[in-house]
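note to self: the first set is below, dont mix up w the second
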Amino acid sequence: MSRRIAFLDIDGTIIDHAGGIPESTVRAVRNARAAGHLVYLASGRTPSEVEHRLVDIGFDGAILGAGAYAWIGTLWETGGWRVERLMDPAHVARMTAAFREVGADYVLQGREGVWATRRAFARLESSLDAEGRLSDATREALLDHVTITEDPPHDGIAKSVFSSDDLGCYAAVTARLGADFSVITGTMPGLGTAGGEVSPAGVTKGSTMRRVLAELGMTARDAIAIGDNNNDLDMLEAAGVGVAMGNATPEARAAADEVTTAVDDDGIATAFARHGLIEP
């Protein structure tokens, strides 16, 4: 069988909703790589948010920040950053002004840091608590890489996440920013249209995936993309095979070519076996 490359989302795809990583996923990634295939992360997380336990699984590279960054080569050992697609500081200022206008809380994400308003940080804690994942250790881990501030930097920002108690928040943000930015919703559990993400226009997992493939001398036909959420849509559509997790949003299912089992029901291993990356 020819060499394939798999691009895997993290949250809801590799990591389940209780914060665990199924052993079948770890085995599938390692066995696929041992068989000569490439396996990349493809996440909305920025580099500082990639946990050591993910790096320890072993990956051949990563697309991070929903397409803002790409590392080609074994995570963080060989290779390096080949893509960095950041927001213009003036656009960051305009974006944060729009968030304040509509009363949204927000998190700004860069390669080396994350900055959150106080209410946005409290909402992150509440979300983890609702999932049964908040502990003293989890809170310490958050504080290790998140700076709580109402005056974040405007340089070096890749994307943002906004949130509110108002279900009209996504529409209000889109009305102000949608013409010049990429604005999506449905990426934060439980928030629905009360939150979303903003990236520079044209910066997506799919567009950066195409850049990575070109540098590796591979084509979309070689690529399998697996995801569960709305920031995975163009990646699922751009890959030769787009696979939605069994726990995926309706939009992700519609964008994919097929649906595998859920994250906590061997979803990645099932998809890898179906396409010959590992033995059934």
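second set (the one i keep forgetting abt)
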Amino acid sequence: MMGLWIFLQAMTVLGVFNYLRHLPTDRKIEAPDGVVVILSVRDDWDGGPDLIASLKAQTASFRLLLATSGDCPSAQALAVKEGDWVQVVAAGVATDEGQKVHKLRAALRALRPEDRWLIFIDADITPPARLVGRLLFPLVRHKADIVTGYRLLLPGRGCMPALVGAVEMQLATMPRSANATMPWGGAMALPRTIAERLDLHAAMAGRLSDDLAIGLAGWRAKLRLRPVRDLLVASPLEGRMAPLWAFGVRQYRHIITNSPGMWFVAMLGVAIQSGAWLWAIGCGGPIAIAIGYGAAWSRVLIRRRIMARTLDAHQVRRAGRSLLWDALAPFILLWAHLAVQLQAALSNRIRWGGWDYWVRRGKVVRMERVKG
């Protein structure tokens, strides 16, 4: 058993090191014409002044398409202020699909003839100035058909945000191959020709998860899905235990209701490591525990180097709070991760954006507005 334990811990360290080793150093960008950035916002959106400032600072130019339900004063005010740079599309209220998907499908219908490159982002990200240009680079150079960054949660004060951030950091710094990449809707791009080839409007119809719908359609079409490894895009994380735990469950419930096989593989990996830690603490003795902590501290050091090469300095300090969990209690991190995965399998109801959705095989089969 000791040999297996050493092997498992070594693999976790090598996996993170492999991510570091493949981080691009040149960070080349492209800035073609015909770029549109699509952003879905809720009707109570505050206008995102920090996000808009970050978008204006991008190294590549684009048009911003705001997808709303139809009653978002901040979006309308921004369009009036910014002129032709910002366009607003009103989707109305969905009846048989996720509200975000409903808005994105309306945005696809509102594309102009000159729109050649589509970039999807989320409203809660803090994008670096290179975001648009870096996403476009593999597409313009014909190195990929769909490209994606990955969310890196920046926890606020408290143990729970740091714990959720630690789980997300584990996922963010996993090695990725073209065959195992699933796009993240917070920073995702594809040429319009690929969108039309996949018929994204139809591919997302009736779905709750936009990125999983696009990713699975890309897999089935055998497209080249590529991660841009240096785009770990910061996203602030605040809150108390209950809503943050629910956030984690919701993420995995998206996965299991779309692809049970993907959920099972992810759960199995965490379950093996969780069980191995139980053995180390209960039967392995001080040497096994020392090996586990040695691997954990090695991962922390490597992840600090990854963050230093992908985030701004103030973001590195904030993201570093998540590293404390892997340094001090890696077994609790794994057990919490496994508990979230297992809880996600207990129901097909997903509460998101003020709605309750019941999902089967990726399709919304029932939806109700959350009262109160």
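remember for set 2: The chain has a mean pLDDT of 92.
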